[in-house]
Amino acid sequence: MSGIEETVESVQVNEGKEFDVEVEEHIEDEFAVDPTRYIFYRDRKEWADLEPVPQDDGPNPVVKIAYSEKFSDVYDYFRALLKNDEKTERAFALTADAIDLNAANYTVWHYRRVLLQALSKDLKEEMKYITNIIEEQPKNYQVWHHRRMVVEWLNDPSEELRFIADILSQDAKNYHAWQHRQWVIQEYKLWDNELEFVENLLEEDVRNNSAWNQRHFVISHTTGFSDPAVVEREIQYCLNQIRKAPHNESAWNYLKGMLQDRGLSSQPGLLERVLELKETHCSPYLLAFLFDCYEDALENITQKEKVEEEEQKETLRKALEICRLLAQEKDTIRKEYWEFLGRSLRNKYGNGSLTEQPVFQLCVITASVHR
Amino acid sequence: MSVYKQIHSLPQPTLLREQHYQYLKKGLRHLSDAYECLDASRPWLCFWILHSLELLQEPIPAAVASDVCQFLARCQSPTGGFAGGPGQHAHLAPTYAAVNALCIIGTDEAYNVIDREKLLDFLWSVKQPDGSFVMHVGGEVDVRSAYCAASVASLTNILTPKLFENTTNWILSCQNWEGGLSGVPGLEAHGGYTFCGTAALVILGKEHMLDLKALLRWVVSRQMRFEGGFQGRCNKLVDGCYSFWQAGLLPLLHRALYKEGESELSQQRWMFEQQALQEYILLCCQNPTGGLLDKPGKSRDFYHTCYCLSGLSIAQHFGNMDNHYEVILGKEENRLAPTHPVYNICPEKVAQALQHFLRMPVPEVTAVFEKH
Q: Please, what are the domains in chain B?
């Protein structure tokens, strides 16, 4: 499901002198035939026994792709192999050509895996092959799935963390790479150095949300977030990163995400620390976090021991003020959302005396006129 | 060059209808060899193009529609489901695309292409005990598969609770600390996967089991304050396709919250800045010679054409059949047809397909894949 680069016009492959008859004859007289020159399968002697199978698009094709000669040739022979269920070395070799032409053809990959098994191919060699393919095309589903299968068959994850680190060094947010990494770590219990790996990535780019996610992944599967020492350490870490880069949404999301199950107001002193930061390191994210703290406090006030009604009113007032500030000044792109949250909060905790008539009621009348 | 000047000097942003129409009309028949990389996704090309045409309210000539039906019939696997091209293996993504494309066409010929019994066999063949689905036999698992399966099963009336046993819990386990959903449990929240998981749960009637408030906060935070478009993940760049995958979540959440008794929902607007998204798409995502794209500087393609237009439609239309409110940036001619936020085909086509297939009995499972 990915977009592609589309050329405005298709480029005709210029075959050049190799296909000029006179020159070709001359070459064969004086030089060895260039072994790297590409020969169509239809011209290969070793394939003469196999009848190629053209694609059956029907009489009035749609979304008809103007395949290159090379593409059609390879896939005509692939279809022939499939039809005969041929499980040979030459079939295996052809799959590499087919993959090279379209690495997203999952039918070819499946066939290659069947052949790997049927021909008892050297899986270590296959690891080298798939390593190269992924380096060339790291954003393809099939190549990563294939690697996972080979690692499983070999039951050997020893190269994985280093390999994935290399891919991530080229694109630190490659989703497939992270998915493969999490699978390897979980499957083979390779947790030991992962937090360090994450911290290094965050050193390089504190805004790398994939790395923040990995942080959460490692901690939740090792120490967990119940240990107060862990939580305090993580809060400290977040606040430090926020001081360095105040407008980094990832750090704020991580802080909230880590604490939200327990409730933001469960962490003593946190609200105060954030209010301190507000003076020098304010951001829409800080304000949203404050709102969440106040909302959580309101949620828990009604459940815990009786709190002064004044205090509750004050918390509500502060929360609503933040909604207004965000909607009208600091985060106007999310105006509809912050106004909704304000109305919701008022509706839930307010006692009706505070507010003017909601403006939306007027709009309902005009909406039906606009219909 | 003159069209470029048109876009950037006109007082009003203009949807380049004619240019997009020509681009789509051509692509439906012929594609350059640059599309070799999508040779295993040809039903997708049918869907992206047909859906774009239906949003532009351009009719599909009957002959073309029939040709699409016959082509997709050749993409159908003898063991059920649809493949990326004739002779390839069935895969949930082209299955989703093919069924959607056929529903857009909406003729009896189109509906009759689908072998419902075999389709059900195919869905069983990719179902996993933990509730997830692999994308194809011997393939990878991620939340896209649940959406593809739920979409085709519900449209063609082959859905049974047993088929989706444990699927709800598996999808729920994809909601993470960020509030959005990941491709598989543990990964980063991502717009495409969040849409797939949420829409699948809506189809299964289980969307209320998500932490809707956390999801809402995550998705509204994905709209870029300067660009107006949406990013796919926190701290990444804007991309026109997320105009649908992300913004499309807001109609779903609006309805989910409404069903949960939320009284303060707007009756006019989705909870994202609709005008800003329309501006991003119209001013930054159009190729002057037709087609839409990710962001300025990128090439056009049919995937981005489909999802930019789908997102534009979402941004223009609030509500449902009974209560409909429009926000059209620029001329009235910029108006697109509304799209269904679950299936992403026009709502009339959804209703028509459901009506057609609900008359038929749910097939008995014929192949030996059903788990005990």
A: 3-358 (1.50.10.20)
Q: Which two tokens stand for residue B360?
A: 């038929």
Structure tokens at A271: 């609200």
Name the residue with tokens 């992962």. Answer: A194
Structure confidence at residue A15 as a pLDDT band (50, 70, 90): very low
| CB-nearest partner of B29 from A62, A102, A336 | A62
Minimum-distance CB partner of A66 among B30, B67, B178: B30
Q: How confident is the model at residue A301 (pLDDT cuts 50, 70, 90)?
A: confident
| Residue A170 and residue A138 in contact, taking contact as beta carbons nearer than 8 Å | yes
Concatenated DSSP letters of A301-368 = HTTSS---HHHHHHHHHHHHHHHHHIIIII-GGGHHHHHHHHHHHHHHH--SSS-PPPTHHHHHHHHH
A130 C-beta neighbours (distance < 10 Å), count: 21
The answer to whether the CB atoms of B268 and A253 lie below 8 A apart is no
Chain B contacts of A61, Cβ < 8 Å?
29, 67, 71
The DSSP output letter for A18 is G
Residue A190 reports pLDDT greater than 60? yes
A91 token code pair: 């079939």
pLDDT digits (tens, 9 = 90+) for B207-221: 999 999 999 999 999
pLDDT recorded at residue B268 = 95
**pTM for this one?**
0.92
Q: Which residues of B126-144 are buried (b: 16+ CB within 10 A; e: fewer)?
A: bbeeebbbbbbeebbbbbb
Whose CA is closest to B184, among A227, A110, A145, A228? A145
| Predicted pLDDT at B368 | 63
**Closest to B176 (Cα-Cα) out of B132, B207, B210:** B210
In degrees rounded to 5, what are phi and psi of residue B339?
A: -120, 150
Nearest to B20, CA basis, from B55, B69, B68, B62 = B55
